[in-house]
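Quick one, tokens below:
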């Protein structure tokens, strides 16, 4: 840092040059919440679309007595339910309880429980994603179904990925400052 004058250098900054501020940066919390909601809606829309298409699947017209080889069953629903529960658990945790209990007057048991529930929430989401990939591979890809049936498995994976992204965006949006929040330091 010898080339930068000392009065302009702030050790808390990541870069030597300041990054530009975006014109909508004061609304970043609201934008984050809307994006998380959109991802949540997209996730469930994708899976419900696959479930509805599966429920109305008919055998081909040239073989009316054949059966449809695969349908969306309760097994397919379990992964999305786990990811949705994980999203709820993660985003219902008070973020201040995750910090160490030394400076905030919190009991260590509260910090420990908050971290345990955060772990459980992320484990539910990771289990949902892993389960959906497993179902995609074992139920749809290894059985070598047509692409219109493999779509059910892809929709399940997209649902779980979008739910995880929604949880992350909502988590980050909750930490963003709003236009009505003031940061006072002494």
């Amino acid at each position: 840092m010898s080339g930068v004058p000392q009065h302009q250098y702030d050790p808390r900054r990541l870069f030597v040059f300041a990054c530009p501020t975006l014109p909508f940066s004061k609304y970043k919390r609201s934008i984050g919440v809307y994006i998380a909601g959109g991802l949540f809606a997209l996730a469930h829309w994708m899976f419900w679309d696959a479930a509805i298409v599966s429920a109305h699947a008919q055998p081909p017209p040239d073989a009316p007595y054949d059966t449809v080889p695969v349908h969306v069953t309760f097994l397919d629903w379990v992964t999305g339910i786990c990811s949705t529960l994980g999203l709820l658990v993660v985003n219902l945790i008070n973020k201040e309880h995750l910090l160490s209990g030394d400076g905030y007057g919190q009991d260590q048991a509260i910090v420990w429980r908050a971290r345990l529930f955060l772990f459980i929430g992320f484990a539910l989401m990771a289990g949902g994603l892993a389960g959906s990939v497993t179902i995609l591979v074992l139920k749809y890809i290894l059985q070598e179904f047509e692409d219109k049936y493999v779509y059910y498995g892809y929709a399940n994976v997209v649902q779980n990925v979008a739910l995880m992204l929604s949880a992350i965006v909502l988590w980050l949006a909750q930490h963003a400052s709003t236009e009505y929040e003031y940061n006072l330091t002494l």
